[in-house]
Amino acid sequence: MAFELDNLVRPNIKTLKPYSSAKDEYTGDAKILLDANENSLGSPLTKWYNRYPDPYQQKLKDKLAFVKQIAANQIFIGNGSDECIDILFRTFCEPGKDNIIICPPTYPMYEVSANINDIAIQKAPLLSDYQLNIAHIEQLVNANTKIIWICSPNNPTGNSLDRIDIETILNHFEGIVVVDEAYINFSKQKSFVQSLIDYPNLVVLQTLSKAWGLAGLRLGMCFASPQVIGFMNKVKAPYNINIVTQELALQALDEVGQVNDMIKLLVDMRIALAEVIGSMPHVIQVFPSDTNFILVKIPKARQLYAYLLSQGIIVRDRSALELCEDSLRITVGTEQENTLLVDAMYEWITNTFELTLN
Ligand SMILES: Cc1ncc(COP(=O)(O)O)c(C=O)c1O
Q: 26 with 149, same domain?
């Protein structure tokens, strides 16, 4: 495979002289900081919040590097993976000229972010078993195709995509292949992070928003070659990750055991919920899931969504997406929330389809 990173990066980014922050311009221990126009007297909150954060989040990256067993210079940290997605577009895709390939139904931000950046979108819908249509993807690739976006396990379908298919794309496509692993911790599949060594065109996205239980912190991780990360660093805002997020994420990374316990419990509850909902009358299918949610196909799904809403239970109606007709995406809740959901669904099914219960 002829992969030429230099030919993929936008010319203006290649030559960009990035912003040099006050913190970029010295090394060593500083005694007196009079370089960044911060408030030298302090802040009304904790002492250090008067200072700008480390622009490259070095401590956090060192710890992540240890947890993920890769080099710190292969990590980019974003304000959620959503920022990583946007930065990837701005690094590689020339507005009004380049295109990307997405495989719907999938995480909608790839499309939104492409539209914001004026990047053409080519679609290779998943097959009816929600796996990649490799032949279609191959057909769509042209000289201006810069990124193929793959989400595995996939949102909203919940399934993992066939690893051999992803490897086929990595081996044959000469552009960037992003594998979004937001839900990987709930899956038995192996992460692609350890495959970065084999594929210079691979970019892996992960997040603290799901299994780590830290959606409110906004911390997304992007793993790639040091060269790709270097270009992304040129594009990002200087202080994209605030001090509080950096400090709390460092603390959270010490709690792997607690997070693993939550993952195990959520997976057990997902299996139980899928079984109960799957056995309800009129439910057409609960799709296999490697995530903390399930996709449920049921007639009159929109009505069920409205009924659940009226009961104060919010799920995600995905019926408008192709291949997701009459489908609701339901996040696994607490034990009590799952029971309330199941009771409400059962009541709606009984009333809607006038079941005769023997
Ligand atoms: C597949 C996928 N990628 C990325 C994200 C966004 O993650 P973050 O909260 O890190 O921006 C989500 C959120 O739902 C998601 O489902």
A: yes
